[in-house]
Amino acid sequence: MESDQLLVLTEKLINEFYGFGRIEGILALLEEPVVGFSCHCAKYIIGENAFSEFLKNEYAYVNPCRIIDEHFYEDNADEESITIRSELILHLNGSQILKYYYILFIYNIRRSCPAIKGIHIAEENDSVNRYFNNMHKTADSMYMPAGGEAAANDCVRNGHIIYTIGGRNEIRYYNDDFGSILGYSSSDKLNYMDELIYAENIEDIRREQRRQLQKDNTYQLRYRLKNRNGRPVSVIESGCCMTMEESSFVLNSVIIDIGPLKKINEHFLSSLLYDELTGIYNKETFYKKTRMVIAENSGISFEMMCVDIERFKVINEIFGEEIGNQLLRQIAECLRSTAVTPLVYGRLYADKFVLCYPAENDNRQRFMDILNKMAAAFRHNYKVILCFGVYAVSNRSINVSAMCDKANLALKKVKGRYFMTCGEYDETMHQRLIDEQGFINDMNKALTNREFLFYLQPKYELSTSRIIGAEALVRWLHPQKGFIEPNRFIPIFEENGFIFSLDKYIWEEVCKLLRRWLDEGRPIHPISVNISRVDLYSDELVGFLDELIKKYNIPARLLELELTESAYFNNPEQIVDITQKLQKMGFIILMDDFGSGYSSLNMLKDVNVNVLKVDLKFLQNTSQNNRSGRILNAVVYMAKCLELPIIIEGVETLQQSEFLQSIGCSWVQGYYYSRPIPVKDYEKLIDQMEYLPSAAELCPCTLPLQIEDFFDPNAKFNLLFNSITCGIGIYEFTKGNLRLLRANDSYFYIFKHSIKSFYALQDNVLDYVYEDDRMELLESIGKTCAENDVTHCHIRRYTSDGSLLHLLTHISCIVKENDYHIIYMALEEVSHQGSIYAEIQKIFDNIPAAFGIFELCDDELWARQVSRNFNKLTGYRKKAFMALTGGNMKNLLDEQNLDMLKKAILHAYEEKRTVILTEAFTTRTDKSIFITVSINAVKSNRETLLCYMYVHDGRSE
């Protein structure tokens, strides 16, 4: 039933009820469970049985009454219901006042005929009711005293007037309040009533007035007077006939100015019609206006466009809600300023706008250009991205809300795809929507009937093709539709929240399988299960997983948990907290789809995951395959540096497998090795293979390094060894002699040596190290061999053509047997630092004083850089100074002097001032130096103290 018909029906029901107390028509249309409310009983009535008594009590409260004025209009509508609002002015005979009521009739329109599912009756508050108080209409109240005892309150003005109708329609009396309503002062003279009526058919007004007077000697009229400036003033006139004079009636009337009430009503209507924030149509009004425009312009083809702001929530979070509101208002202003007709536009909700326009003159592109230009002008150093979805209106008979749904479906196609900003609806989307609703209708029943099951996709060690574990992937075996792929139903279940129930079911099924394998004595490989983004919002997650492994008595490490990296962006703090709790319980955490989100490095910094998973597919949408390969190589290298196992999934070809092996990947997953398979097929694969630890167990930091791999031409290490871009050398170190055993390609490239010539020399590698740096290198090697730890140092080393390179050296010990060691060194060229070092040294040497930079580290004082005059003051040349000390000041000063100097450095740092010492310093060679030292100290980013010392001959003091 159309809303116009419901308006007529509601008017009939209300007039029968308030006019005669008839309730049969209302009761016949009630639909269980019907709900009723009235301000007079202040509680809800539920059910048809209570409704009859409810309506009788309501009528008894107002009876006897008469309807003075009434208005009906559609208040709200959707696909299932329509609400009709009635506004009534009732004259209550018992109290001699007027009351203002609004009544809501809520209809269910899904049935063939409308049914009432709710009635809400409310009396307007006192400030509105006072508009109508003291309006006397009975014969007993013919006269009102001069001056008008019905004084106006703060909000409402009313006045008293006595005048005639018939003849000259003279005004015989009026009070000052009546004159003030029309803007006249007490000195002004008003003579004839008809001169005050605003441009309307006076005869119609008088005819209605006479009709009412003839009936019961009273009347009630609503019309407009005109004020002193000629503007209309809406009034209600309520009066009675005092007497008859020949052919004229002498009327005693009260005139009330209902302008304030109209303003309140207009504001109320505005809030019903317009969006409060932007001032453009709200959703319901947009639907109505669009329906009218499309119906009135049958010869025009229309398009429906939905507009959405990408990641609008982020704008509110970063800049504040007011800036977000400003952006919404700017969009509304853009739509207002567009010269396209006919055009309807509105705000549906949040950041979603919708407009209907003629599909001609390239209007679609015009709107996109205008709105994108506005978005580009956002003045907060943030790129605002708008998404558009368009439905070309091909079926004009469907509801406007359905048209908007189609445009919104098209918009969803482009959300998150920045290279594509506008999507267009096609019928496949509609079919997909039908399928989605079918999935939603069937999901709970499917879970109860155990229609969901999981397949296992094995994970392999790349070099041996042996299984190290598997991932559980859900499947839906529908009794009518057969196998349904997860990409069809998982996004739907994530959106409606059902995914958590499904995930809990799959997790428990996996635990049952692990328990069975343990009971059967099978070799156990971990199974990883997926944790949805929606799951992370549940307070039950951690507790449920804890109870699950206890219930089936399985080690937590066997149930590995895969978190999607994109979930970190949505909820980083919760991800960190949940990960820590689960790891403390023993669970292994895998970060799935690493690199495909927006926050990879932040995630890696904050979340202490156990394993990374990288999908090859995120690199396939580029024509620069070499660049993709380098990115993947860098990711693998970074994971190794962080001592994180990494699994590459999505491996589908032999070429991909070979490339992954060449860059040092160890574990893979993908169709090239195995598709997801039923549990029984997986068990057969396991039975054919020997046990291999999982990826999490094979963390690089726990793997013993086999020296044979460095010299085995068939070892998988060789591919990685020669692909590393920094220089790598394997050395034999014994009795102070360092000899190269093997190096990678980058090593020979850095030092400009040919492999053949370099190995032929078999020289001591120390001979190629800059003389002043040899001691530092030897000390680092010694520390590595003694403490079995990685050490780092900066050295300078000559190339084959005599150039001097600055290198950052990382040293580790592979084999240690008595005085014989095999050393692994990684060399990174930092020549730009050498240039800086040389420039600083020139500056230092030109300072006309002894100056030096020293570092206090682990109670050792090191000379990092000193000037030429510093060497002169100590009596040693630079070469001799470095040979004597190796940079460590304990090799220059005696213990007492060194301790005094360290204390002065600490004192200078703690008090943030210059500390001056004038002392006789004795060197290790018993040479005495009487000097004055000015010391300043700051903390470095390595938490050591950097000391700046100015030294001069103390004998001049």
What can you tell me about this protein's structure?
By secondary structure, this protein is α+β, with helices and mostly antiparallel strands. It has 6 domains: 3-124, Nuclear Transport Factor 2, Chain: A, CATH 3.10.450.50; 139-264, Beta-Lactamase (2-Layer Sandwich), CATH 3.30.450.20; 274-425, Reverse transcriptase/Diguanylate cyclase domain (Alpha-Beta Plaits), CATH 3.30.70.270; 438-691 and 698-702, EAL domain (TIM Barrel); 707-829, PAS domain (Beta-Lactamase); 844-956, PAS domain (Beta-Lactamase, 2-Layer Sandwich), CATH 3.30.450. Helix content is 37%, strand content 29%. It contains 30 helices and 35 strands. The strands form 6 sheets. Strands 17-18-20-21-22-23-24-25 form an 8-stranded mixed β-barrel, surrounded by 4 helices. A 6-stranded mixed beta sheet has the order 2-1-6-5-4-3. The protein has a 5-stranded antiparallel beta sheet with strand order 8-7-11-10-9. A hairpin with a 5-residue loop joins strand 28 and strand 29 (804-817). Helix 9 crosses helix 10 (321-336), helix 10 packs antiparallel against helix 11 (363-376) and helix 15 runs parallel beside helix 16 (541-551). The longest helix has 22 residues, at 427-448. The radius of gyration is 45 Å and the shape is elongated. The protein starts with a helix and ends with a strand. Mean pLDDT is 80; it is low at 126-155, 695-709 and 711-716. Residues 300-432 form the GGDEF domain.
